[in-house]
Amino acid sequence: MTVTMREQMVLTIEDIFERDERAALLLAAISRVQFEPVLQRYPLRAYNLGIMEQSLVSVAAGMALEGFIPFVHSITPFLVERPYEQIKDDFCYQQLEGNFISTGASYDYGTDGMTHHGLADVPLLKNLPGMQIVVPGTAGELDRLLREAYGNGSPTYYRTAASTNPHEFAVRFGKLEVVKRGSRAAVVAVGSSLAYVQPAVDDLDVNLLYCTTVAPFDSETLRNVYQGSNIIVVEPYYEGTLVPDICAALRDRPIRVEAIGVPRRVLSQYGTPEQHDAAVGLTPHDIRQRIDRFLQA
Questions:
Q1: pLDDT, position 118
Q2: What is the CATH number of the domain that holds 189?
Q3: Which of 255, 167, 152, 182 is nearest to 212 (CA)?
Q4: Phi, psi for 10 (deg, rounded to 5)
């Protein structure tokens, strides 16, 4: 049976709790049922605070100051946008370690309307000093990256989604995975976007780089793999988020960049993730058309 990223999050945190007495869990009602064994077994370091996300983050910061490593969890917009100031002030400005794990990106809850969309999470958090951002493409990759980075001393955001890639990689925190090599361009696919990027470029003479750590971005691998000027980045959130990092990585050479992702406009329609992907052009066919136009320009 296939395990979802959300299910894997629960399994991984349960195991970390048994191995590491510093682990703490703070919920805002979301996933309370799934985490019931942890809440029951560890009442002194696992809490469901209810739907008050600003307080949730501040309580987590207090636990971090006491030596705990908190795991903070909710739906994407409620975990990032509601308590954004608390994440900034209480964690980033104080340089505390903690793990923020969302569920529902980008529009997994699209049938509930735009208030439940999580398109701005990564663009917003990239503005915060010291914030690490992880975007796995499978449940197994989430498990691997969470175990590797959860106690590394920094605030870290893990973005989970219902959609997953068909193939899993032995990803490493902070590193790009080289999926294929070519000469005409470098295509950087972030997280679950690899599922529709890989078939789009399968027969193209391009490098395909798989990115599961958005911040810090692996500039070294990008520079070493590709010496040309054509860069294409495909992201499952608002488009263009990684462009500044790519420009900084290749600042000593002239480059052209095509940014593909969710357009920065209001998505006012209800629908499934697949319907939203089709509406905004995140399908293999649409991505291939944009790449072809870019390379021919």
A1: 86
A2: 3.40.50.920
A3: 167
A4: -65, -45
